[in-house]
Amino acid sequence: MPLILPLLLAVVLFCIGVYGVLARRNAITLLMSFELMLNAVNLNLIAFDAWRIDGLATGQTLAIFVITLAAAEIGLGLAIVLLLFRGHGHVDADAARDLAEQDTQEELQEKGAAT
To answer: How distant is the alpha carbon of residue 7 from its chain centre?
Structure first.
């Protein structure tokens, strides 16, 4: 199989992931988009490893490392999403950013009132 086919598939997957990160506001959709981008990177690693036959399996080793990193990322991300949903009843990323800004404004007002 020519090298261009897996690379084109990886480009398409990566572009879908970037679109999901930039256009969507749901935190779970953001996590899935990050996973798509990481899978595109894995596909590139495996394709280049198969194309460059050197016997070291460097691309496969790096792909396993990326899969491990993705598993840790999704575990931490889902924990944050669950905390956000339990505390505020939504998983909207923009609203979560607004909540952080409101918290800092309230802290500043409390410090100003205390002095």
So the answer is: 20
